[in-house]
Design goal:
mainly alpha, Arc Repressor Mutant, subunit A, three-stranded antiparallel sheet, 19 helices, 10 strands, 54% helix, globular
Length: 410
């Protein structure tokens, strides 16, 4: 199975926008990319009157530099000259993006043309939060939604003291896991190279090295691919990589395959705490200590699946600075798994076993400082099922792996 996100969109750099997407989509009712994109853009581009604070002035001066934003610059100039300083009308997203609490102030979304609206749910689909054809909320989407507070969702309705673009520890755990599941092959190749060879780096520089790394990966993957799905995906990726290589060392535009592929592997990981931007409004990055440690995990792990199942929670505990110890009380873990199943179950009581284990891992790590790895959760569930076969039911895939769990007695 390939772990590379092939469809990229620069228009979704801040992961906080995903909170609105999972809150506004249904686990049963199909939608469309256009409807979801139009809804998100309509909410975040609504204008509100706000005071001209220093951080807003700097944001406007550096973000709205193009000619068609001259009216905003004129508003800022007029407000600054007033005594006391006046107010300006800004989009909701700009009010939040300008705040110093964010690790990156780039990533405002816009649609230059109506046809661009459909790209906004792309990242949610790539991370497995929405289904690709019907845009229904998935199990992973419901898991992420469980980490989002009502105050964060309310903050998309009007300016709030809560900045919904800030990513919480629980959200970091879900998002980073999902990125590694979806894009871990490329991240696992790219990050160790950057960490060893670059102190401060730009999206332009990263874009120029992706082509060679991706090319080498696809050559090996093509030789070992057996499924038609993988072969088709490899063919698509090779065409994209040809474009990436064609643009190597050419002028930076911020658009196109080379630059968009780089941005997707950089900006979200600033939100997740692996990268730091010395200047929050520039596309320059450094690996912080967390990023270097996590990069070493990826480099030394022989198998990404094993890392995600056996070591991910321990690694994320270090990333978040949580002093935690491995779980000892299996009954406590089982009770947490029961509660996670209740929160994530479909209409017949089954929940995805990985998402169930991940939600329990989040709760036990952040509430009890206990590490519950996913494979350990599976072992606890299997042992409990042996003791009480009528109370716990599994749904098994054709390879014998547990995919879903159902607690008949909660």
């Amino acid at each position: 199975m390939l772990r590379i996100i092939g469809s990229t969109a620069r228009r979704m750099q801040r992961l906080g926008f995903l909170k609105y997407l999972v809150a506004s989509t249904s686990p049963q009712r199909p939608s469309s990319s256009v409807a979801i994109g139009r809804s998100l853009l309509g909410v975040v581009s609504r204008k509100y009157t706000t005071s001209i604070r220093p951080e807003i002035k700097e944001y406007c001066d550096r973000v709205f530099t193009e000619q068609h934003y001259s009216f905003i610059r004129a508003q800022v100039k007029k407000a600054v000259e007033q005594q006391p300083e006046g107010q300006i009308d800004l989009e909701l997203q700009d009010i939040y993006l300008s705040q110093d609490v964010l690790p990156s102030k780039r990533g405002r979304i816009l649609a230059e043309k109506e046809k661009d609206i459909h790209v906004f749910p792309t990242l949610a689909v790539s991370l497995g939060f929405l289904t690709p054809a019907t845009y229904v909320l998935t199990s992973r989407g419901r898991l992420f939604a469980n980490t989002v507070s009502s105050s964060e969702i309310d903050a998309f309705a009007k300016p709030s003291e809560v900045n919904p673009l800030v990513i919480s520890p629980g959200q970091t755990i879900v998002l980073l896991f999902s990125f590694l599941e979806a894009d871990g092959d490329l991240i696992g190749m790219l990050y160790p190279v950057i960490a060893k060879n670059m102190e401060i780096f730009t999206d332009y520089e990263v874009g120029n090295i992706i082509g060679e790394l991706l090319g080498n990966y696809l050559t090996k993957a093509e030789k070992s691919a057996t499924s038609m799905k993988d072969k088709t995906e490899i063919s698509k990726l090779k065409k994209t990589n040809a474009i990436i290589k064609e643009w190597k060392n050419k002028e930076y535009t911020g658009r196109g395959a080379r630059d968009e592929w780089a941005t997707l592997r950089l900006e979200p990981f600033v939100d997740l705490g692996l990268l730091t931007k010395p200047d929050k409004l520039a596309y320059r990055y450094v690996f912080n200590d967390n990023g270097r440690h996590f990069s070493s995990y990826l480099e030394t792990s022989k198998n990404l699946d094993s890392f995600l199942k056996d070591n991910y929670v321990g690694a994320i505990a270090q990333l978040l600075g949580v002093q935690a110890t491995p779980v000892i009380d299996s009954d406590e873990a089982l009770n947490s798994l029961k509660e996670s199943n209740r929160l994530l179950a479909n209409n017949i009581g089954y929940s995805d076993v990985t998402d169930t284990a991940l939600l329990s891992a989040i709760n036990m790590l952040l509430k009890s400082n206990v590490i519950l790895e996913i494979r350990h959760s599976l072992s606890i569930l299997k042992e409990a099922q042996k003791k009480n076969p009528h109370d716990i039911h599994f749904n098994i895939d054709r390879w014998g792996n547990v995919k879903f769990v159902n607690f008949r007695k909660l």
